[in-house]
Write a structure and sequence with these properties.
By secondary structure, the chain is of the alpha+beta class. The protein has four helices and seven strands, in the order H-H-H-E-E-E-H-E-E-E-E. The strands form two sheets. Strands 1, 3, 5, 6 and 7 form a five-stranded antiparallel β-sheet that branches.
Length: 166
């Protein structure tokens, strides 16, 4: 029995060595794959919402009587703080997915009496903390990780608005 276990260990080490050096792009994908991490560990993720934050982007300022065409192409993504690499993909899996925004719009200036119209996009993020409990399936030993997150808000993640100014 020990001979089989030792042989199996040597085979596993050899495969890992081969993947890391002969095919590093495949090994990188395996590191980020949650299912490969679930072989030895089970994970429990708890999120605790604290506030909604905003990031406002000015898209354009169009003078009265003018029309402009503008394009916008950006992504609202997850931001993690204090997150070790070995649990980053586990935490991201429990957060809201990134939101892509792409548009091409005709923007018009304001009515008479105003000098220009400013167009804005506001990206809303939910901010909070998370706790991950990683349990070793073999030994039952637990390790706790704590950090903070910003994720695209589940409600009104991107809001378009404008303001006329004199």
């Amino acid at each position: 029995m020990k001979k089989i276990s030792l042989t199996l260990l040597i085979v596993c080490i050899s495969i890992t060595f081969l993947l890391n050096f002969a095919m590093p792009e495949f090994a990188g994908k395996m590191k980020d794959n949650i299912s490969s991490m679930n072989i030895l560990y089970s994970y429990s993720v708890t999120k605790s919402f604290s506030e909604q934050t905003q990031e406002t982007i000015e898209m354009a300022s169009v003078p009265s009587g003018k029309t402009e065409t503008r394009s916008a192409d950006f992504r609202s993504d997850v931001k993690l703080e204090g997150t070790p690499l070995n649990i980053r993909s586990v935490v991201k899996e429990s957060l809201n997915k990134p939101q892509a925004y792409k548009t091409k719009e005709k923007l018009t200036g304001p009515e008479k009496g105003f000098s220009y119209r400013k167009y804005y996009l506001t990206k809303n993020y939910d901010k909070g903390s998370y706790t991950v409990i990683r349990t070793n399936k073999i030994t039952g030993k637990e390790k706790v990780y704590v950090g903070t997150y910003h994720e695209p808000s589940a409600q009104d993640h991107i809001v378009e608005w404008s303001r006329d100014e004199k």
